Amino acid sequence: MIKRGTLERLDGKYAVLLWENGSSFIPRRYLPPEARLGDTIIFDGTTYTLDFSNSSPSSFQTFSFRQMG
């Protein structure tokens, strides 16, 4: 069964993932190294991967120097 959740916070060596039916703590080493807070995480029963289809660009990626005046 595939589960989809959100990376809510990092707590020491653990990550807190929010799922549709609750939350869980998992060792951070199981997450992809590029995972960031707010990312959508997919768990397929054996591995955790990022869901790029459900991600929005960060404010850093969308910033434009034209906005500075």
Report the structural category: mainly beta
Average pLDDT: 82
> So what's the overall shape?
globular
Question: Quick one: biggest sheet?
Answer: 5 strands, antiparallel
- Strand arrangement across the biggest beta sheet: 3-2-1-4-5
Please bin the fraction of helical residues: under 10%
List the helices and strands and how they pair.
Elements: E1 3-11, E2 14-19, E3 22-27, E4 40-43, E5 48-50, H1 59-62
Antiparallel strand pairs: 1-2, 1-4, 2-3, 4-5
Give me a quick take on this structure:
This protein has 69 residues and is mainly β. The chain has 1 helix and 5 strands. Mean pLDDT is 82; it is low at 57-69.
Write a structural description.
With 69 residues, this protein is mostly beta strands. The protein contains one helix and five strands. It has one helix at 59-62, and strands spanning 3-11, 14-19, 22-27, 40-43, 48-50. Strands 3-2-1-4-5 form a five-stranded antiparallel beta sheet, with no helix packed on it. A hairpin with a 2-residue loop joins strand 2 and strand 3 (22-27). The longest helix is centred in the last third of the chain and has 4 residues, at 59-62. It is globular, with a radius of gyration of 14 Å. The termini are far apart. Residues 57-69 have low confidence and may be disordered.
